[in-house]
């Protein structure tokens, strides 16, 4: 696995177009930090769309799993919280 570049928001501002181009052309994400804490990432639109698709599939999988066990009676709000809390 390749090392993902990590840059401060200040540094990214100085060459934002290059960071975006790297994500788009080379599929190379960049993690952005603020005061040493990771706060965001620049990724290609394809990566974002894949993540959104995975998230939707995961939510549907959990719903199907819970619906199959009618005795559980778990509210959809709890399913959503559980899914989002996983942060996978």
TrEMBL record:
Describe the task this protein carries out: Antitoxin component of a type II toxin-antitoxin (TA) system.
- What protein name applies here? Antitoxin
Taxonomy of the source species: Bacteria, Bacillati, Actinomycetota, Actinomycetes, Kitasatosporales
What Pfam families does the record tag this protein with? PhdYeFM_antitox
Q: Which domain of life is it from?
A: Bacteria
Q: Can you tell me where the transmembrane regions are?
A: none
Similarity annotation: Belongs to the phD/YefM antitoxin family.
